[in-house]
Every structure is written in C-alpha cells, then in structure tokens.
Design a protein that fits this description.
The structure is a homotetramer of 201-residue chains.
Chain A (H helix, E strand, L loop, with lengths): L5 H17 L19 H27 L5 H15 L1 H10 L4 H29 L4 H6 L3 H17 L3 H16 L3 H6 L11
Helix pairs in contact in A: 1-2, 1-3, 2-4, 2-8, 3-5, 4-5, 5-7, 5-8, 7-8
C-alpha cells in the first residue's frame, strides 16, 4: 500500500520551482530605458515579492513535513496534486493584483487562492496523518496547529475587509506571511529526537 | 543492456511538472479589475482544470508503474519521450479549446491528443513488459487492462460525437478523467507483496 | 578533485526538460476555431517535432554517457554548461524556422546551432575522457566515434546546401536525426560488462 | 535541528535551471526571414550570454559549496530562497538591458541585481558557516574570500561608472564574470582531503 516518497518530493519541487520562477515573467520588460519606466512596475514587483515569500513558505513547510513522512499512498498523491493546483493559480492572481494596483476584486481573488491553498495544505496533512496513524510524529506535530488555523482566519478576514478597503486586505496578507516566515521549529525539534533516520534522500 | 531508472524518472518529472504548470500561462491576466473581467476566462479555467487532472493522472500512473520497474533500456527511453511528446501538446489544445468555448474542432483535437497520449502510454507499457519478461509483475498488472481499453474507446466515441455536439464530447472527457481519478490500486496492492524492495529512490 | 555526478545530472535534466517543453510555447494558440486555422501552424509543428527528437537524442546520449562516468570536475561543469547553452538556442531557431516556412536564413541558423551543439558535445566528451584517463570505459566507447563525425559532416553540408535549397537542408537535418534515433548500443553493451556498479542514482 | 540537504539542492537546481532557460524567451523570434532581421537581437544575445555565464557561475559555486555542507537548517532554507529571489530578477534586467542597447538605467539596474545576488550569496555562506561551526571545512574555505570581495567592489564601481558611461559598466561586468569563470579550486582541493565522504547524492 505504501509508495516511496522520493518522486513525490521531486515532482513537487519541480512544480513549485516553476511556479515561483514564472511569476517573474509577469514583470514585463518596459519599453523605455529611463528609471521612470520602472515606476508602473512597482505594484507588480510588490505582488511578486509577497507571492515569492508565500510560495517559499509552502515549499519550506512541504519540505519540513516530508522529512518526517515515511511513505505515501495513492490518496497522498492526489492531495498533493490538489495543493499544487491551487498554488499554480498564484502567478495568475499575483499578476492580476499587481497590474491593477491592488484593486478590490484582484485582492479578493488573491485571498481566495491563499485560502484554498491553505485548505488544500490541511487536507494534505490530514491524508498523511491518516496514512501514518494517530500516534505518528506527523500527527503529534500537527495536533492543534494554531498557526495554520490563525492564518485561515486572517485570510477570511482579509477577503471580507477587501470589499471595503483592499489595501488593508493586502496588509493582512503581509501579516500572515510574516507569521510564517519563521520556519516550523516544531518539526526541526522533532528531527533531533533519537531514532530518526529519515533524513536526506 | 539495462540502465538505471533514476534519471528517466527525474527527466519525466521535470517535463510533466513543466507541462502542468505552463498551462496556467494560457490564462492571460485580464486587463480590467472587475469580477466581470474574469467571466471570459471561465471556459479557459475549466479546460485548465480538466487538463491538470489528466496530466496528474498520467504522472500518477507513470509513478506507480515506475515503482515496479527494475531497470530501463534504450527502447524505453524513446517510448518515454514519445509519451512526453503527446503530453507536451496538451497545453496547446487546452488553450485552443478554452479560448474557443468548446467549439467543434478544438474539442476534436483535444480528444485526438488524449487518444494519442493513451496509445503512447500503451506502447510505453508494452516496451517495459518486453524488457521485464512475460512473468514479471508489470506484465501481470497490465494484463487485461480494462481501464486503459475503456478509456481509449470513450475517447474515440467522444471525438466522433464532437463533430455533432462538442459539449457532449467534453463531458465524455470528464467522464474518463473521473474513471481514472481513483489511483491504480492494482499496483499499490502489488507493492505490498513480500520481496518488493524497489521503493524510494 | 572529483565531485559527485548527481547534481550535474539533475541540473542537466532540468534544463533539457525546460528546453524541450518551452518549444511548444512557440506554437501560439490560433484565434480561429476552424481546422483551417491550424494550417499555418503545420511548418511550426514540423519544426517542433524535429527539435523534440534532437533534444531527445541529446538527452539520451547524455544519459547513456553519464551512466559510465564515475565523477566530474570543475572543467566538466563548464563543458556541460557550454553544451546546455547551445541547446538553449534550439527553441529560438525552431520558432524562427517554423514561422518562416523553412526559408533560407532560418534553416541555415538552425543548422549552425546543431553544428555548435555537436561541437559542444564533443568538447564535453573530451573533458570527461581527460578526467577519466585514456584507458577508461568512456575513452574506449568514444574512440573513433563515426556517428558523431558523420553528423558534423552532414550538418556542414546541410548548412552549405541551404544557401541554394533550404528544403534540402531541412531534409538533411531529418536524416541525421534518423541516424541517431537508434540509441547508443555501444554504451548499453558496455553496461553489461561485469564490475559495473555505477547504475541508478 | 538538522535537515537533509537533498531537497535544497533539488529545488535550487530546479529554480536555477528555469532562470537560465527562460532568459532565452526574451529573445523574441524576429518576423523577417533575412539575416538582417537578427541584427536588432545582437545586444539581446550579448546580454543573454553574459547572464547565462553569471547564472552558471552561481550554480557552479552553489554546487561546490553544497558538496562540503553536511546538513541544513531552517535559516539555510530562507537564505537560499533569498539568493534565488535575486537571481530570479536576472532574466528581467537581462531583457531590459539587451532591448535598450546597454542604456544607462538598465545597465545600472543589472549591476544592482548582481550586487544584491552577491550580498545574498554571502549571507547564505554566513548562515551555513554558523550552522557548521568556525572550524568546519566551509568556514576555512570561505575565510578571507578575496574573489567574493573583489567582485562586490567591481560591481559597485561598475554601477557608479554606468551613470557616466554604461558601456564601461557592462565591460566591468564581463571582467567579473571572467574572474569567476575559473571554478573554485579551493573547494575542489578540499574535496581531496581524506575523510570526505560527502560526495554524490
């Protein structure tokens, strides 16, 4: 029933690497050669930085979690593809939000994609926990995941707030990114436990 | 005569990861910032979701099959490239079908690419079976592959039907995707047999 | 002095996977929804198929050669990047040749890129041979490499001929691809020698 | 506290492979089929060659350094993403510089991206040194890193000079690339020391 985890990691690395890199293609080379010709790109650049950090956070958390995963099954593959699907929409909403200078609907849609990515990540974790059992390391680590729950709550607030003030919504997305910027010490600590030989590749 | 399988997996992962991700580039960022400006993208988005699922299915089946493959040879490399070639046309027909709101010829061509990808997958399996022998695990698993045969038949019907009603053709493509959505339990079951140490990387 | 070969393979796989896949982006989705709207894409499609086969040949030969390589050094990394540089120009000349229906200059430039890629591959092999020694497997296999030399000669003829008849030049490129289509049995045979444990990853 | 280094390498390989390859997409296929229609692409091509070499240098140094790294931690992941962020801006400034024939502001911005990438690389090394300790191989190798410091100084001079003569600035970027073209023999030498079993993957 259990499959090796190496290719799931490799495929996810590939997709996430492409997502994080093609976003920069939304920053179209300006036609002028003056410093002013860069000015319209400032909101696009800001969106790019935020999304780069978000995709980086997902990659970091994916990496940390896969370190303690022992094997995967068919359901995991689909839960993983589901997560990658929502992340693959990030370049689209990033470009739309940046080109429209953080207007209402693009900011709302950006938040919806963050919210759905968060849901997809939670489903992915649940599938992994079910595969490994309730007493596994992964179950213990994600038990009472306040950071995940807090993020989802802030996303929901940010989406609602954006109907009235989309800049405030954008600020809230930055706040969540800042919360996650600190890597997941729960898992790093776990990895120091004796008996863990699941490292490397 | 036998080559290691690691790089075949890595290269296929890379190509499939790129195919699945560049499809999203066909969803061009709209110029307006209203929710209405997303409406013309709905058929493009629907095509994207379907193709994401299809490419995901191919990756899943490729992954499952490679788990029980012991080594590859020169013929396998070309059969694999042939499969990747047809899959690489998926972003093109996806964009064409979506932008033309499921018109006749784009839906037909989409089905032809699915049909050719299915043929290419069958050839790839046959080459692997010939390399491993008729009594190998891979030969047993793909013996009497009703799911593969059924899919090919439905594709053929869908392409024919699309000459008269392309929406119905599209619905049939969705049906095949649904059939495959369930991961290939035949191989997962096989992997629990004793003596299989072919996992991981 | 010797470095592990794993990352050289992984990086080359990544670059070659991207090259082979972004070529399809040159096949722009047509605006019409009729079968006639695909007609102008036929030469682009033919160029794409030829280049897909060429890049596939390079990947296959790279794969086969790296199987018998034991380690790499700094010079190998640069020789490898030099090879990838010329291959990275393939999508550009492919698109140019296809969009101009095999006109004189695009066909000539396509041949020049093939010629330079061939040179770069030869340099890469020479660097690997110098690193492994004259009595290594890799030196023996590439000793008197008639296929490589023949290809270079045909490329040179094809480029010259294209000044007068570019369709003939294109046909000669197809001939070289056909010669290489057969995988490099010299190395596959080598790999069956006893004492080779360099397989897999 | 320590994580395996395999996925950090794989993800970095993926991102760097994409960066180095999508730059070629800035070389738009010309509409004409004459050799003259390539002329406007010459500065774009020159920018592409320079950036290809720079990204190649970063990949080579990343590869060499990771060879002697034993494990990574959360801080390393972020320092690595920070480095990849600045490198991801290289295609943008490459395209802008090439299309504007080495005009003042694009050349300045290109230099700023090089400078920031250099800073990011230094931070990445410092984080690795702190993780491995002051007596580790990596600390010894990067102790008194004259090549890194010289490059940063030349970048700063080149950016300043470009305000008056941007061609001279471009020449200085070429000079730094030439300095780094020679692979980092310090690490290759280190790898011959007895007791190093950290090679391969």
């Amino acid at each position: 029933m259990a499959l090796g985890k190496g290719r799931l990691e490799a495929f996810s690395d590939g997709v996430i690497a492409i997502i994080i890199t093609i976003m920069v293609l939304e920053m179209k080379v300006p036609h002028g050669d003056t410093i002013e010709s860069l000015r319209p790109l400032i909101p696009v650049f800001m969106s790019y930085v935020l999304s780069f950090v978000y995709v980086g956070i997902y990659w970091n958390n994916h990496h940390h979690t896969m370190q303690i995963v022992r094997s995967v099954n068919g359901a995991t593959l689909w839960a993983n593809l589901h997560l990658l699907f929502w992340l693959s929409l990030v370049p689209f909403v990033t470009g739309w939000m940046g080109e429209n200078h953080f207007a209402k609907w693009p900011v709302i849609c950006y938040g919806v994609v963050l919210l759905m990515s968060g849901f997809a990540y939670n489903i992915w974790v649940k599938v992994l926990v079910r595969h490994h059992g309730d007493h596994s390391s992964i179950a213990q680590i994600y038990d009472g995941d306040w950071k995940g729950k807090l993020s989802m709550a802030i996303y929901a607030v940010a989406v609602t707030v954006s109907f009235f003030n989309s800049i405030l919504g954008f600020v809230l997305y930055v706040v969540v990114a800042a919360i996650w910027f600190i890597p997941d010490r729960r898992i790093e600590r776990k990895l120091t436990y004796p008996g863990n030989e699941n490292e490397g590749r």
